[in-house]
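Question:
When you can, review this sequence-structure pair and walk me through the tokens.
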Amino acid sequence: IAPAARNLAAGRLDLADYPFKGPVSAILVAAFHLLTAPWGLDLFRTASLVGLVASAFALFFTYRLGLDLWGRRTAVGAVVLVAVNKLFFINAHKAGSDLIFLALALAVVWLSVSAAPTRNRRVLAGVLAGLAFLTRYVGIALPVWTVAAVLLLPGSGERRERLAGAGWFLGGWAVVVLPWLVFSLVQSGSPLSTGNLQNVVQHFHPAGAPDGGFSSLGAVFAHDPVHFVLRYMRGLGEYFVREWEQVLGWAMALLAAGGIVALFAPRPRRRRTVFAGWGLVYLLAVALVFYLARFSLPLVPVYALLGGSLLDRLPRWPALGAVILVGLAVWWQADFARTAVGFYRAEQPLYLQRSLDYLNDQAGRWRDEGRPRVMARKPHAAWYGGMDYVAYPGALNGAADLLAYAAEA
């Protein structure tokens, strides 16, 4: 994000700065840096501040969803559960795009399910969904879910009105997304130039892609449809289990399980069910790639709201029980957060600093031959080492190919 924001501030927009995601995060960091630079904040600290502001918006929309779909106790309980979740806590203090995407996605979901949307709300939801897509491309799940929500939710009028509502949403989405697709087509020859296909291939073919590699998701499927379906279904199970073990912790997981059961008892309410469907659609989309805990961050508010909904089912008089229930969840989740933060504090600076020391030493040795280059998956090391960045190629068939590509680059 930092190299892209730096180039934007200098008036340069280069597709090479966005190998895995769109430009929204870099645009926000560059804009915020106009305000923070006079206070001495560098791009890294500015990006961390953007993430912190986005986390506040994410909590706000979590509260609004809980209040509008269930009640005040659900809203408060969900905010507490999200705020102390270790994944949310850590990413709220990191320079990245995860919290920006989460805030935008929750805003779209709230606009779509909390009340009978007007035309303006539909368009705004489309614009925000477009921004979410240009933050992380897995945001393609938002228009899929939102169009389904428009057609399924009550109070949206007759069929013609619902189709019009979906059209207004998609129009707002297209206004944001199409300029980027055109820009990508002009610069690269593809309307969506992204390295995320590598993540899909790594998930479905961890031993390596076949000769020639793949040019699209359809090609990955067509290579061996049976293997694709079986690996995808196994991946869904892996995601689900790992989320509950590594992201939620068993305290929040038990609350979420109870909330899922309560969602259908005694009978489901359509708005709540459609909201829960957002979590399912996102899970189906993200399961196309290998598992990383932070990929599950958009599901944390979904689980928190479902778990927090149990609070509104308690009788009014045992307030002490609600306090104990939330208190236990907070205590358990805070312990997870403490452990995770301790890991990052103890381990991450060590290997990062060693890498940077090595890179700076190599840079000093080779300065007389021109500006050094670092080939990596992402530009972090080159940025911190003051070097030029060269991306890994999309597919390699061994060390000889890697050396040949490096020599040419």
User: Anything to note?
Assistant: Residues 68 and 114 are 6 Å apart (CA to CA).
